[in-house]
Please model this.
Amino acid sequence: MLPFTIQKVTSVEAAIAAATSGGRYIAGGTTLVDLMREEVEHPERLVDINSLSMSDIRVEGSDLIIGALARMSEVAAHPEVRRLQPVIAESLIEGASPQLRNMASMGGNLLQRCRCPYFRMLDTACNKRDPGSGCAAIDGLNAGHAILGTSNDCVATHPSDVAVALVALDATMRVRGPDGERSFPVEDLFRLPGDTPHLEHTLLPGELVLDIRVPGGPDSRRARYLKVRDRASYEFALVSAAAALDVEDGVIRSARIAVGGVGTKPWRLRACEEALVGKPADRPTFEAAAQLATEGARPLSHNHYKVELLPRTIVRALEMSGEVA
Model:
């Protein structure tokens, strides 16, 4: 690990000033510290934001507000989260070990770097780590890589589980930077790799995530998260799905679906959602809609299985959502 300094701040204004002048925000540090230890990332100055008042979890009307510094374990265990948005609690529990959940913040989870092993291997080509060097994963071992949203420069999947749930739920996030405050959908935080895969999010220099707002709805309490992986715990998703259905008299009134493990960012499936509305909430309907999920897929040499596994995962997630009373 290369030398660095730490600056502890006690106000949002001080944090933004420090980050604007070259500092990097750090909260739980569960990703950043690992990458620094491996010398993939080497910031000279870290801005410790843990003293900021951004860890509250509260309800406003039907909306759930989650502070960016709230720890994953706190959010997953919070009674209002479990009552209003159980899919968030499920995705957080599935997303990491208890030790990591106790440390990792919600804002940091959304901004974690990609899961591609070549990103962490300094002796291989990676356009995220070293722009213009190439992508070793495309012709390498790529069973865990993306089939949606890929480019000739990057095929890495986004690692966050809770981001998938938040995208499905139309959550928004509030950020503040040198030019003031703004809010936007969580879905818009993430960039497609294109020919600039090292640019992973849309935050402006110095912007700090303040909180996340999750709107309530008739389908929120029915939403479920399903994660398919190589082992039972502490593993990234091969395919995951967050599904929410609003069903009345056996007919689907609205649907929301997002998937992980298959896209270069959390992937919203609006075509599948549209195909469900007005149809009976049964397996044939789910199967027909789920087939639309793989449109535009570009499988690699070792991940063709995801083309078949993705629709199956969506069908089961929809069934789970329909089973909730």
